[in-house]
Amino acid sequence: MKTSANDSLLARALARPETEERLARQILDAAVEQFTIFGLRRSSVDDVAKRAGVSRVTVYRRFRNKDGLVEACLLREVSRFFQELDDAVAPLPTMQDRVVEGFVVALRHTRAHPLFGGLLRLEPEVVLPYLTVQGGPALTVTTDYLTSHLRRARHTEGRSDSDPRPVAELMVRVAVSFLLNPAGCIELDDEEQSRAFARRYLAPLLDA
């Protein structure tokens, strides 16, 4: 059963970036650029304020401190990721098709994203705990998102009404494992390979 804290986190992650005020967007854009180039450890609120062309007081008024700024950046980028994912899979006719294409989009987006992919390369020691031993919140948010989609699809397609959350969590864990350690006998170097893998191994999980 999801807690109210998890519900709140998911709601914030799904909030549209367009709801931000102009100045907040300006600061967050500068923060993403700063963190991408220099990493989290080597970046300060002063650095972000200078890059955004505002005073440090302005940044503190909106984001409290550096941790609040980092969290706001991550939530916005996760929100944009979910929106990109929704846009990519919405036209597809079946849940199997959406699972396959969603896996492809998730890998492509995360690998190419300047902040997520960049931090994994620039400061893996900072990022990895949040995807592994401290990865509970990220796993919960992503699993919640996928569970809601699977539940709606099962209802629409007349599938079993069993709880789809274990299947959603398994799919998320598989995707994260490939992001963190792509080396192995399973080749996912291009999108066709990723589609073939998802069609063969992930789509059948929908019938589990």
TrEMBL record:
Q: InterPro entries from the xrefs?
A: AlkX_C (IPR040611), Homeodomain-like_sf (IPR009057), HTH-type_TetR-like_transc_reg (IPR050109), HTH_TetR (IPR001647)
- In this entry, which stretches build a coiled coil? none
> To which species is this protein native?
Streptomyces hirsutus
Keyword annotations: DNA-binding
Q: Which residues form the HTH tetR-type domain?
A: 21-81
Positions of the DNA-binding region? 44-63
* Gene3D superfamilies for this protein: Tetracycline Repressor, domain 2 (1.10.357.10)
PROSITE patterns per UniProt:
HTH_TETR_2 (PS50977)
Q: Which PANTHER family match?
A: HTH-TYPE TRANSCRIPTIONAL REGULATOR RUTR (PTHR30055), HTH-TYPE TRANSCRIPTIONAL REPRESSOR RV3405C (PTHR30055:SF153)
Instruction: Write down what this protein is called.
Output: TetR/AcrR family transcriptional regulator
Protein's UniProt keywords contain DNA-binding? yes
